Each structure stands twice: as structure tokens, then as C-alpha cells.
């Protein structure tokens, strides 16, 4: 019962002891309390009850009872870090027990061998236990043994064997009432899905397991560790770090298992390293190494040493000693048959290369490169990374490009199994090194054209295909409705000065639930996508339009000027300096959004001139007089490009990638030419441009006041030719897909737009901060505009800074005047800026808006 209904088992065992039972029954009761405390509570209390259980078994004269308690005690001692004593308890238990009891003892010793990372011993004990358990028709213990054997197979990288055992165990569990074990089986299937490369299924199964554990009221430390692993593979390292740290705090609070604490510290160290915090990673990994060493868990200790070495390298501590450490770790991991061995060899080779030790580097990288041919996607990616570094060391640019192409193809296929745009974006981080290697090699071997191809190869890839449509999931839909209602109530409370803490807490809970369900979506599109073609781009640009793609190599901006049949390269300034200058400009625009800040205008204009020098360099003088398309790196997405002197008075559009601009250019507008005008609540001007625009577009659908509700707005936006939305915009840096436009019944968020069959062909967002994005992955952007572009929108006008609502009105009216005359969004926005009054307030408003895409 302790694994079917833990709380009820604890209550009954306590009641039995209160009744003064016979020694045999008292032994069982103390053992049940010991198991509960060992797995869900305080290990010190667990060991106290297990000692009492063994004393009672001895008084009862039952050798089998004593053997069974010794096995439970052995597990508890190992989890407490007292490995020598725990293994000794098992030796006595195996000797004392016979038949079925002995098989159960062997199963639990196999579990301990797995905890210790001694997988061959674990498989041997399970091999001896399973036939006896099956012969006795002991369904529960047979299912446990099969689940354990599957878990050991996973640790050794034998995914197919593991899946077969998990399937057999799950069939047995369905015939029992062991709810905790059933939850554990779901969790284990989540781990198997992850090992086979199916991240969405892994997240779904782990969430399902957590719900089952929650119904039982039991802690989930092993699940926390496994979820951390999946989150890291999904590019969500900061969330994995938060999960691991939270679980460590809970474990310390109940005096829980030392073994689990060490594993959680290892997960936290890996997450911190991937999140770009090597010093935190070093601290956590060093503590994990000490705990694992004290627990005699060599397999785990070696994995912790790998993370410690990786973190030290990331902190800039390259040395011959570090090469030796990485090589030693690689050798040990290989002897264990651990799938992480190629990572360690890659690390040793990378550090050796940094030191100029080419012979040593070649030896280690050759070992790591073997993993490129088989295994899960991320293991093959490690192998291709090693192969690319080998080719670079050998001076073969062609070899570098081939290895990078093959590695990024593997990652493409992996990304396309992910349905959620957020996961696709974050997964690109794992290809950042390959993309950078290819860019450097292409510059050496192929000139500007090849550099353009490789800049596009790993830029804004999420926009290359539409995200998977969220399923018609009743729970997801009801969660979205509840989220809107709570968000609207919270906003109303804030405006009235009422407390909002409880409402904000519930809003965050609903956001987590919605996001969790969207992350479960599997991808549907094939991995090949639409390959970028330079000649096709140049044909569309013609002789008048120039496309300026900004690549970044070794921290410096490379300007690729495309048009008039060729691609030219110019070198500009340092990216870090440009980022700082862009922040100064944003601060200036925020101040200019308020009347009376005219004195700041010359300062902002001077910053614009400095930005031009840093971002365009000598290319600024080669732009001619025609239209310009700017393709910036993700980290420069907040630059107000119209502020740069050479771009200020020209037709200017911005695109996340050249490929995205091409797709927008080739997008066909819908045949019915439907117009939709939306006016949300709470605007200082009341969305004053909307009534006048309604007069200009006689057949337009106008949604305002109570009619501007999310379901109706989405219904009308779907497939529209032109949409104009005047509403307050909110950018969420912490959760960009919850960036929102405020409607009458609450926020409309990015997740809502992703439900559209086709987003409007042109959309104008006369709202603050609608063109702000979160930079994630290698060079990806998450936000409102980037959600619309792959869904059928060919052009967007949006704003990258807070603006003055009153100053927006004349800009929008002038913009629509140009559209009515047949101009594109970029042309109409250029003319609208020129028509504004010359004061600082209106000039800053014009600069804050950009045209995205090609419509």
C-alpha cells in the first residue's frame, strides 16, 4: 500500500503500532513508516524505524522478514550517503533470505547499483531476480524489476531495449492498484521519449506523471531531475536551473536523500553552464563531485567532473591540466559505456585547439567525431561539431562547411519535431558554434556570397515554417479564457488602486499551464524547409532595391550589401558598442515621447549618427537613392533604423532574415480585400484614428468598445487583407509569447495569433512596444511581429518604443492615406513621417515605428 496510497499506508502503520501488535506485525508497520520517510520524508526518521523493524523481525524469528528489512535499510543507507554500510546490509539480506524474498532483495540491490552508477552489476542482479519473480507470479515486483532494467538500459544508451521493458512493465502495472508505481512508469516513459529525441512527448509525459504524484501527495525529486534534463535539451536552461534550485530547497527542508541532492546539484550545474553562468556552474558541480565521491558513486562523480571541467573552460581557464582532466573524464565515461563520453572528448579537443596543441586535439576530436553517424540528434550534433573543428585545424574550409552543413541538418530535423515556436527558437542555440564556424570558413573560401548563404542558414529559422497549430484542446482553450478573465480583472484592480497580488499569482499559474500544454505539441513540417537562394534574392531586389544584411563575426559587424546583381561586403564597428548606443537611443526616444523634451532631440540625432558609423560603416555611402531592406542580427532588433541619417528619408523596411523578406515578397494577398479596424480600451486618445479610418474604408469591419473582444477579433482578423489595431501593447521579456494587446475582455497574446489559419496580409499596430522581441537561441526573435510573419502576414507596421498616443494619430492617418494611394507599407510610412510636424515629439514618434516584411 505504501506505493498505492502512501498517506493511507502511513496512517494505518501508525495506528497498528499504537495498538501494540505482535513483533512480526510491528516489524511490517515500522518498515512501512521507514519506507515512507525514506522516499517522501526525513532519512534520519527512516533509519530509526528500520532499525526497530529489524529488531522486531529478529524477535519474531523470521529470517525472510529480517532479509526484507535489511534490503529496505540498505537502500536508505545508500541514499543517506553511507554506501559501505548500505552494501553490507544487502550482503546480509541476500544471505538471510530465500526464494521470493531473496529475489526481492536482489531487485533492490540492483536499484542501488543503478543509483551508484554501477550498471553492469545492476543488470546482473535483475537478471537473477526476474525469473524467480515471474515464476512466483509476483506481478508488482516483476513490473518494478522490468522498469528498473529499462532505466539501466537508458543510462547505457540502449533505448530500444528500454522501451521494450517499459512496455512490458506498463502492461503489468495496469493490472494493479499501485498508483505511485504507475506514476513512476509514466515518468520513465517520459525519460525514454527524451532519450529517443522526442522532447514534446517527454514534456507531456513528465507533466502527466507530476499530476499523478500530486494526487498522491508525494514529492517528485527524481522527476525534477529528469525534467531539468529535458528542459536543457529544449534550450530552457534558466528554467531548468530554477527547477533544480527549488527542488534542492525542498529536499533540504525535509532532511531528504543525500543521493538526490547530489543529482539535483549536478542538474543545476549543467543548467547554469548552459545558461551562461559558469561561476555558478563551478560551485554547484564542485559540491556535487564531493557528494558523489563520499557516496562512492563513481559513474555520477565522473559526470559531475565533466560539467565542472566544461564550466572551468567556459570561465576562461584553458590549460594543459584542463585538457588532461577532460581526457581522463572521457576515458572513464567510455569505460562505463556512458553516452556523454563524446562530449568529454570534444571538450578535450576544443581546449587543446585553443592551446595550439593540434596533435592532441586531433586525437580527442577524432574520438568525439565517431558519434556523428548514429544515436540521438544531439549526440550526432556533438560528432559533427568535432568533425568541423578537425577540418578547421587541418585548414580545410571545404571540410568545415561540409561538417557544419551536416550538423545543422541534424539539428533542423530535431527542431522540426518541436511544434512550439518557442522551443524551435531556443533549440537553435545548440547550432550556434557550427553556424559561426561556417561563417568564418565561408568568408575565407567563398567571399560575400557564401557568407550571405551561411548567415541566412541559421538566422530567423523559426520564421521559415509556420508553427504547429495549437490543438483543439478543451483544457487549453478554457485555460486561455480563464487567463484573459484574470488578466482583465488584475488590470482593472491596478487602475482602481486595489490589491492585485492574488490575481497576479493566479495569472502566473494560468500562464504556466498554457505554456506547458503548448510545449507538448509535436512538429508537423519536414526538416528540409525552403533553402535560401542568392540568385532568387537578387532577382527580386532588381536594380533599385538594396538589401543590407548585418552579420557578426568575432564581435564585429560585417555589412553584406545585396542588389544590382551582386553581393558586396564592408566591415563596420563592434557589435557591443552598437548595442550600447542603441540602448542610449531607446532611452532618448522614451524621453521624447513626453512633451517638453525638445532639448534631447540633438542628443538622439547624434546617437543616430554614431549608430550609422558602427552598423553600416563605409556601406552607408553606397546605398544610392532607392528602397533599402535592413536585416539586422537579433541583438539589434530595437534599433530605430529610420533615425540613421542615410536611411531617414528613404523607403525603408526591416526583416528578420533575407529569406523571410523573400517569402513576404512572394506572399499573395487574399482575394476578398477585407479590412478590419480594432479599437481597444484605455487609450489616451481613445484610438482617435479608428473612426476616421472607418470613413475611409466604407466596407470595413469595425470592432470597438464591447465588440473588441478576443474571440470576435480573432475571427475577423483571420484572412483579412488589412488590419489596423489601436490598443495598448505590453511586451513581456520574461515570457515573450504572452506579449499582449489589450482588448475589452482581456489581453490577446501571441498564443492566440498562432491559432489563426492565416493572419492578415497587412497589419498595422499603432501601439507601444509591439515591435519589441526577446532574443533567444542562436539568432532568433520571439514576439508579436515574428508570430505573424510565418502565418501569412507579408507586412507589419509596429513600434519598438513607448510613444505618445496623441502623436500617433496623425502618423497613422498619413500612413493610411499613402496606402489608399496604392503605396506599400514602407513607402507610406516614409511619406507619413515626412508629413508630421517638425517638433521633437512627432519626429520621435515617426522614428519609433518600422515597416517589417515586404507588403
UniProtKB/TrEMBL annotation:
SMART domains according to UniProt: TPR (SM00028)
Domain CHAT: 606-848
Organism: Streptomyces dubilierae
InterPro entries, sorted: CHAT_dom, TPR-like_helical_dom_sf, TPR_rpt
Name of the protein described by the UniProt record: CHAT domain-containing protein
Pfam families (alphabetical): CHAT
SUPFAM superfamilies given in the database record: TPR-like
